[in-house]
Amino acid sequence: MINFSEVRQTNEMIEKENLDVRTITMGISLLDCIDSDLTVLGQKVYDKIHKSAYDLVRVGEEISRDYGIPIVNKRISVTPIALIGGSACRCPEDFAQIARVLDRAAHDVGVNFLGGYSALVSKGMTESDRMLIRSIPQALSETELVCSSVNVGSTKAGIDMDAVRLMGSIIKETAERTADRGSIGCAKLVVFCNAPDDNPFMAGAFHGVTEADRILNIGVSGPGVVKKALESVRGSDFETLCETVKKTAFKVTRVGQLVAKEASRRLGVPFGIIDLSLAPTPAVGDSVADILCEMGLEYAGAPGTTAALALLNDQVKKGGVMASSYVGGLSGAFIPVSEDQGMINAVNAGCLTLEKLEAMTSVCSVGLDMIAIPGDTKDTTIAGIIADEMAIGMINQKTTAVRLIPVIGKDVGDEVEFGGLLGYAPIMPVSAFGCEGFVNRKGRIPAPVHSFKN
Amino acid sequence: MQRAIITVVGKDTIGIIAGVCTYLAQNRINILDISQTIVQGYFNMMMIVDVTTTQKSFGEISEELAVLGKEQIGVQIKCQKEEIFDLMHRI
Fold it and tell me: Which residues of chain A are at the B interface, by a Cβ-Cβ cutoff of 8 Å?
């Protein structure tokens, strides 16, 4: 039988250390909504989302109350819209109309975000992919809850540099169209290499074509819990450090497993995966950078950071796979800058640079995330940064992503405020050296030699 | 059997256990186990209860207990289904 100290430990994790279920994300396939008439398509898409996710928010709140565990976000991911809108859309404006339908559906069912305004173009772009990508600045400036992602590379297919170059311009254009709101449009736009089909986290979530009609994916978080656990093993050897992270990750993932099972039962929707990602929030004590500091670094970004992050990421995965049979591929640690007070402190102290963050992304879950850069950064420079990050993902057979925010009208030394979970960020310097000659080449980077595994 | 864990934390005063137990009895909730300590004037109690026989929904019970604690006794009362603790602490 459960004892007092175990109950107290669980409740302290929730009340004092910010343990929470970060998101219940319902993946909804829109493949059966495809129609050549844009109005009919819009109506079908709205109806399917509304019908599928009508109870999502209510059930999430009930589970939260029954177990006393906060469930912060309820979200939806849909089939990449480039596939859905292909036969109905004749121009980028037509795609933007679908984005408005998605936004309305998301508002009406009460979710925080809806992801899947996406195109998968790792080897090449169809006309419909191209139109969707061109419509992203308009779509993100006219909607509030829609998130967009574009997968431009994979280990199997290489990197589509035409898409990378295009995304450099699209990110810039999105920033300009939302310049009056701190270029916030870019916070809802991610460029991926090896994007997973079942990601529950925004802004990169979409419902892959390999998935069932509807599915529930759960994201659990709790950097504060890991930090607190590590406080008790200060100065211990690496084995003790690893054991502590692993055990904590196990406990946190089990909570996710419980919520996933319950949500699946109450909604009658199959459970997909649990992603245990130490995803920070701007709240004090909810920081991945603080875990790195607890391990013994002065600031995130100091020498040793990449090793510490590699260790953390790996132990989180090891604890997670023991706790659930269906653990998602992104499990590990996220290192967004604006959403993590410890990261912001490190940037302000001059310890953390874009180049160090790039190195860190080669061992952590995702990539260059929520990084504010000067608004006058050139399109080609953004494309160059994307290309570097995609190459890390392609060569290391992992997911990498780029979510950069060129904040129009701001420069190094300024700050930008996004509000809520997105936080605030100091503008980080970007290398002033050019890469036009490289990124302006046409075509794609071929798949690496280790992709020949057949 | 549907078990739940009730935790009560707050400044010690007269009638905390009486208040909680009266509510449970009125709502046909059976107490299976109680452990209680006082640390530096702070009252800490954990109860394991069986909610199978109650007429109310689990949500109502947990909300009413929270209100009872806050407005009448002056302590924090949480009522959670048992599985969250079981899953977290047992393989």
Answer: 1-4, 6-11, 62, 65-69, 251, 254-255, 257-258
